[in-house]
Amino acid sequence: LPLFVNHGEGGITQDWNYTYTVKAYSGNHLSSRNMNGIDFDYIPAPTLTKASAVLEGVQIEWKCDNTNVIKYNVYRKNGASWLYLGNTTEKTFIDTNAVPGVNNTYTVKAYSDINAGAYNNTGITVKYLAAPKLEPLTFDSNYRSIVKWEKSAGATGYKIYRKINDASSWYLVT
Fold first, then answer.
1. What is d(CA 83, CA 42) in angstroms, rounded to the nearest whole number?
2. How confident is the model at residue 22 (pLDDT cuts 50, 70, 90)?
3. pLDDT value at position 143?
4. Mean pLDDT estimate for the chain
5. pTM for this one?
6. In whole angstroms, what is the distance from residue 59 CA to residue 28 CA?
């Protein structure tokens, strides 16, 4: 197939919609062209800004200033390929099926109503530690609190917090 690569006049610019068409020629003879052409929105990869563990799973956040974007697809690395997790119109997404105890790597691809944009093939990585599941609180014979929980996969230690009355802040106990 014949090929054209646009290298002129500074390349292509974000937020611009490009339409291309082609005419064939031989000497002084020209073909007609497709008057509708083929449209293309230049959408660079969203900038991955944060991946963090939240109660529901892993929350991914990104920036994308392209005004042509109508949705984002979110992916988690699965071996050598990317597993599609879902789409959103927001610039944040929570993976409720993150794998606990291991590094989870994510990327995001933006879409216009015409085409898909680029994505960051390195992604952003976070080790997901699920919140420990608490057992019912018990007390010893001296009325001291005994806090028990199930282990969280991949955890190497635990910090215990306490608050007094619902309106107070959490304080680190140990």
1. 24
2. confident
3. 92
4. 87
5. 0.74
6. 60
